[in-house]
Amino acid sequence: MRVANIMLSKKGGGIEQSMVDYCLALSLFGHQAIAITPPRAWVNNILPDDTEKYHLKNWGAWDIFAALKLRKILLRTKPDIIITHTNRALTLTLKAIKGKIPIIAVAHNYKIKQFIKADAVFTITQDLAGKVADLGVKSQKIFHIPNMIKASEPTHKEPHNPLVIGALGRFVHKKGFAIYLQALKILKEQGIEFKALLGGAGEESENLQQLAQQLGLQENLEFIGWVEERAEFYNRLDIFCLPSLHEPFGIVLLEAFAHKVAVVSTNSEGPIEIATPNEDALLVEKNDAVALANALKKLLADEILREYLRDNAYKKICANYTHQIVGAKISAALTEIRNT
Q1: CATH architecture of 2-148+322-339
Q2: Which of 47, 141, 264, 284 is most buried, most CB within 10 Å of its CB?
Q3: pTM for this prediction
Q4: Dist CA 45 CA 319 (whole Å)
């Protein structure tokens, strides 16, 4: 099956990585992925070699000229089905070709009002599936398709001295990095030895660096910028912290699991569906620096618990989130949608 895979964001992040993973999964199951992305988009450098690649310059969801250009690309490439990532991609695709080729909208977050116009919806969590159903989308048109990740066997590593805690993501309020810094301050005040990393970039960068100085974390915390080499980042860690106030999924959680790093996460929307508390991660309440610090303290003190969590987490990745496993779900859903 020829499958157009459309993502019209230039930045790097979870949605963008997911789009690349879709191309990989489609290829695994014998489909031809047709990637349609903006020029100079972050994903353009990491798309698989066997993906057909087309660029679409656009100025937003209501760019009629972009919709016309997209229509030309789709008529030329003749996909059997179209997968769209984000509202912009969906809206422009609906304008370009609605009614001629089945259109799937992937619900990566809770901005889903337009999704009732799609022919089918893929949701990354069951919670999002419920929200899509609340819009009036029929259950037979909703498919739970989680994000996916490569799960190669990590190399064994000895604990660092002192142990290293890390967090990673876009520097925006909902990611909860201010709470992460406050938790680190609590650990320091208790005389606990640790090193900490914070990777990422974004609008809150200056505020976070100022907060770290105010909290006296200069000797404990390193801001390492945007992280391209994820394996190298996770290999530097003993504990990964996901402090999000709002997290629709959390690809970084899968990454930490896949690299066998023990995890402390908030009980935000995505993590509570991915993680099993005290089996493969420690979960704490959102927006609670004390609870986060206590969970980090527990892992810092207990090597056996860290090993238990990370081994179970890796097994979960292999059983549920590889390209092979999720790709099979995608391929089956595409066949069902096309034959409906």
Answers
A1: 3-Layer(aba) Sandwich (3.40)
A2: 264
A3: 0.92
A4: 29
Q: What is the mean pLDDT of the chain?
A: 96
pLDDT tens per residue across span 209-230: 999 999 999 999 999 999 988 9
**Residue spans in the chain of domains classed CATH 3.40.50.2000:** 2-148+322-339, 164-320
Report the relative pairing of strands 120-123 and 221-225 from DSSP bridges.
unpaired
Structure tokens at 245: 């106030």
pLDDT band at 11 (very low <50, low <70, confident <90, very high): confident
C-alpha–C-alpha distance, residues 150 and 148, integer Å: 7
Which residue is associated with the tokens 């990745």?
317
Residue type, 148: M
Assign domain 164-320 one CATH number from 3.40.190.10, 1.10.246.80, 3.40.630.30, 3.40.50.2000: 3.40.50.2000
Does 102 sit behind a cis peptide bond, omega within 30 degrees of 0 on the bond before it?
no
Short-list 154, 159, 164, 249, CA closest to 199: 164
